UniProtKB/TrEMBL annotation:
Cofactor names: a divalent metal cation
Record note on cofactor: Binds 1 divalent metal cation per subunit.
Annotated GO MF terms: metal ion binding; N-acetylglucosamine-6-phosphate deacetylase activity
Protein name from the UniProt record: Amidohydrolase family protein
Glycoprotein listed as a keyword: no
GO BP: N-acetylglucosamine catabolic process
PANTHER family per UniProt: N-ACETYLGLUCOSAMINE-6-PHOSPHATE DEACETYLASE
Keywords: Carbohydrate metabolism, Hydrolase, Metal-binding
Active site: D269 (proton donor/acceptor)
InterPro entries membership: Amidohydro-rel (IPR006680), GlcNAc_6-P_deAcase (IPR003764), Metal-dep_hydrolase_composite (IPR011059), Metal_Hydrolase (IPR032466)
Coiled coil: none
UniProt domain Amidohydrolase-related: residue ranges: 41-366
Keyword Flavoprotein in record: no
Length: 378
């Protein structure tokens, strides 16, 4: 089938202008500039490297059918590159779930697995089950990689955990992203771990920067300062949950201005409540209450529990940032950097002769269509 439409084409860092786009059997065969008004805007699909689920389904908990449902939801809302995230779980639960998620990956519904834990710091557990958190265990990491059948693409661990260098070595050998987070480490210890990971050729990210870390303090800068410095040097890409809940919009502005959007990757950290109403949900072994769209751990005494993942999509965060005054090309850079981190750079551009990997929106940034690898997602 061949179809053609007029749209304003926007790329990361560059607005191309209005073009006549022709797609034949899912391949872009024409991309021609025209002097006409456009009622639509087209830009590359987005990347989400930290995502726990949606529409009542949870990647750490659900069966194959449920995980496929959650993945399809995020695909249809613009995340053309997607990692499914686990949480800290005992090995007897984590390893079988990694096998389920490997099945999801082999059906093409996700682009790999992100393991958030279990080698993190209990004092910065956030919405992770402290009972399941353990010191760094290289043997267990090897088992995780084996159980995931080559689909483990990222793991969050604290730089101060035991055997951190061995964990980094294994990640570098198996092309697994080293994502530092859920940490109480000093700036010096974090910088040392980053330096070692750089020396081993590992790809490095920061798991939801600022969240589950000590606040940045002028006399005790902590992991945040080290990760920002490394991002400014081009050694680290920092995850931001730019939803107005996990981070104040001005914090997002500051990071984008400080390190540049190319060293930022917006992530949803979505959990099962994404796309659903307020109510009760599960994240791993923990009960979660969602009220006014904000997910928090359920407490028995009515006190406010820790934030327990997100309820937005990366596309929602893109729209929020644009409405806050950021240019769409700059925001797209931060929303597509994950493609590059996973070796999917072709999904971050729109070129004639390539498979369609783009989103078609109204000018008000309402999604009309999503294409991924020459197929329409819907």
């Amino acid at each position: 089938m061949t179809e053609s439409f007029i749209a304003d084409v926007v790329l990361p860092g560059n607005r191309l202008g209005v073009h006549d786009i022709t797609v034949a059997d899912g391949v872009i065969v024409g991309l021609d500039p025209v002097d006409k008004p456009a009622q639509q805007v087209v830009f590359p699909g987005l990347a989400d490297l930290h995502n726990h689920g949606a529409v009542g389904e949870s990647f750490p908990n659900s069966d194959l059918a449920g995980c496929l449902t959650a993945a399809q939801y995020h695909r249809a809302h613009g995340s053309t590159t997607l990692l499914a995230s686990t949480v800290s779980l005992p090995a007897e639960r984590l390893l079988p779930q990694l096998s389920v998620l490997a099945d999801v990956a082999e059906q093409g519904a996700i682009d790999g697995i992100h393991a958030e834990g279990p080698f993190i710091n209990t004092c910065r557990c956030g919405a992770q089950d402290p009972v399941a958190i353990i010191p760094g265990d290289p043997d267990l990491l090897q088992q995780m990689i084996t159980q995931a059948r080559g689909h483990l693409r990222s793991i969050t661990f604290a730089p101060e955990t035991a055997h951190a260098h061995e964990l980094i070595d294994i990640c570098a050998e198996h092309n697994v992203i080293v994502s530092f987070g859920h940490t109480d480490a000093s700036a010096e210890a974090t910088a040392s771990a980053i330096g070692y990971a750089v020396s081993r050729g590992a790809t490095i990210t920061a798991t939801h920067l600022f969240n589950a870390m000590p606040p940045l303090h002028h006399r005790k800068p902590g992991a945040v300062a080290a990760l920002l410095e490394a991002a400014g040097a081009g050694d680290v890409t920092v995850e931001l949950i730019a939803d107005g809940v996990h981070l104040n919009d001005k914090t997002v502005d500051m990071v984008l201005g400080l390190v540049g959007p190319a060293h930022v990757t917006f992530v949803s950290d979505a959990m099962a409540a994404a796309g659903k109403a307020d109510g009760q949900y599960m994240l791993g072994a923990l009960d979660v209450t969602v009220a006014d769209g904000i997910a928090r751990l359920t407490t028995s005494d009515g006190t406010e529990g820790a934030i327990a993942g997100g309820t937005t999509r990366v596309f929602d965060q893109l729209r929020r940032a644009v409405r806050a005054g950021h240019s769409l090309p700059d925001v797209l850079t931060a929303c597509t950097s994950g493609h590059h981190l996973l070796g999917k750079s072709h999904r971050a551009t729109i070129e004639a002769g390539t498979p369609a990997n783009f989103i078609v929106c109204d000018n008000d940034l309402t999604i009309n269509r999503v294409f991924r690898e020459a197929e329409e997602v819907g």
